[in-house]
Amino acid sequence: MILDVVSIFPDYLAPLDLSLIGKARRDGLIDLRVHDLRDFTHDRHHSVDDTPYGGGAGMVMKPQPWAEALAHVVASGAGGARPRLIVPGPGGVPFTQALARELAEEPWLAFACGRYEGIDERVYEYAAQDLGLQVSVVSLGDYVLNGGEVAVLAMVEAVARLLPGVIGNAESLVEESHEDGLLEYPVYTKPASWESSAGVTRAVPPVLLSGDHGAIAAWRHQQRLERTAARRPDLLHSSAALTVDDLAITSARPADAAELTTLQRACWVGEARANDTHDIPPLLESVDEVARGLQEWQTWVVRAGGRLVGSVRARSHPDHPAVWQIGRLMVAPDLQGRGLGRALLAHAEAQAPSGTAAYWLNTGTRSERNLRTYRKAGYRVQPGEGTFAGTVDLLKRRR
Ligand SMILES: C[S@@+](CC[C@H](N)C(=O)[O-])C[C@H]1O[C@@H](n2cnc3c(N)ncnc32)[C@H](O)[C@@H]1O
Question: Which of 172, 235, 240, 316 is most buried, taking the most CB atoms under 10 A from its CB?
Answer without folding.
Answer: 235
